[in-house]
Amino acid sequence: MRFITVLLFLLLPMLSALAVSLPPVIGDHMVLQRDMPVPIWGWGEKGEKVTVSFAGQSKSTTVGKDGKWMVKLYKLKANAKPSTLSIKGKNEITLKNILVGEVWICSGQSNMEWKVAQCANPKEEIAAANHPNIRLFDVPGHTVHPLPQDQGKGEWKVCTPSTISGFSAAGYYFGRRLHKELNIPVGLIGSNWGGTRIEPWTTLDGFKSVPELSDQAKSVAGYTADKKVGGASPSAIYHSMVHPLTPYAMRGAIWYQGESNGGEGISYYHKKHALVKGWRKAFQNSKLAFYWVQLCNWKKPGTTPGGGDGWAKIREAQTQALDLPHTGMAVIIDLADAHNPGDIHPKNKQDVGARLAQWALHQTYNQKDLVPSGPLYSGHIIKGNQIHVSFKNVGKGLIVGKKEGLNPTKLIKNGTLKHFSVAGKDKKWHWAEAKIVGEQVVLSSKEVKTPVAARYAFTMNPADANLYNKEGLPAGPFRTDDW
């Protein structure tokens, strides 16, 4: 008997090596993406036939020389009825409680990592989080690797009060709104790490796609398996915490990051291009939607009309990166706690998630009756001593507004617009008198007879910036100059 036990122990690694296996992201309780081909992949013995069956489909393939296999299911229709998925080789795996709907990855640094339990109204939000058709997959820990890894960690969980507390608050509130308004299952994949820069999340192909980042591309291309990398090393986090998820079919990504790159301007624009292009290639989806959060107001309120301090330029870079197709940006310069502006982790993630979802609903899900965001600068005309500024995403009209906590934005009747400034050829900035005229804001200043440039909320903390649309969404910071 002891001999048989020892023999089985010795044979176990060999037997397990022959068994068909799956990555953790393909498991019980998952949500499969609707309306696009769905890859199902894993490992097995070379030459082994593998058959995947789901929703009336049956797809077969053969394990390659590298021990890998993959099939792609045809497009699936949304389905909230739990189903089973089977994978059969020399062994058989049955995955249970599978739904079909919309899948999104939620990534970035600490403001995306910040948990529901750490944010506003945690007790009430956790108690109400009984959503059996929202599923959560959280990549555990903080890990890096010099080379792309096939195997990762994590498991799908049904969204309940006992599973939601440790999940990304911004991600959850984003997914919750989608689930409510689309009325279909939603799968959320969390992969985030506080304090990280954008570079370690970016792929080698992403760096290669942007000529300005050729140095980073060369660095990553030179990595070997024994290369020592850390949380700041280009591509190192992607290799360990995102690559194992690829090419899981998903609709898009939401991204909250930039604080650790806060001193940058145009360089962050290039890096955002590299991030988005790289992930789209990795997930084999050239139209992967990508919505990010512009950095919040932080530290003491700015009091100089020229501004330009702190995060002004990285916010500008985040706005400029909207030239990428299928992207959007949630403006949140009004969401910091007025009583604690020094908190880099504002607790109101409900509005962050809702504003990200606003973009997705408008652009990805074609709900054109929704304005995607607050007013964004689109151009200006100088007429004598005035600058007439135009905006897109005006919605039902421009207003002077005030946002307090989780409450909806209030219209301030006869209110005065603040945090606009103008300058002449001398490049000296002065606070401007700003008036809403139709869908424009008209600026002037007694100190500037012939204005040539304007700025709005172009400072680390534009606490009193108060231009909104009637939908209650704030205008984004901008400047018309390049000084």
Structural class: alpha+beta
Shape: elongated
The CATH homologous superfamily of the largest domain corresponds to SGNH hydrolase
Q: Mean pLDDT, as a whole number?
A: 96
**Total discrete domains:** 3
* Number of β-strand runs: 24
Main beta-sheet annotation? 11 strands, mixed
Separation, N- and C-terminal Cα atoms: 83 Å
- Provide a count of the helices: 10
Q: How big a fraction of the residues is strand?
A: 25-35%
CATH architecture type of the largest domain: 3-Layer(aba) Sandwich
CATH class of the largest domain: Alpha Beta
Portion of residues in helices?
10-25%
Oligomer: single chain
| Rg, Cα atoms, Å | 25 Å
What is the fold named in CATH at topology level of the largest domain? Answer: Rossmann fold
* Sequence stretches where pLDDT stays below 50 over 5 or more residues: 3-16
Structure explained in plain terms:
The protein has 3 domains: 2-69 and 83-96, Immunoglobulin-like (Sandwich), CATH 2.60.40; 103-364, Rossmann fold (3-Layer(aba) Sandwich), CATH 3.40.50; 376-479, no CATH class. Helix content is 21%, strand content 28%. The chain is built from 10 helices and 24 strands. The longest helix is centred in the N-terminal third of the chain and has 17 residues, at 2-18. It is elongated. The termini are far apart.
Brief descriptors of the model:
483 residues; alpha+beta; Immunoglobulin-like; Rossmann fold; 4-stranded antiparallel sheet; 10 helices; 24 strands; 28% strand; elongated
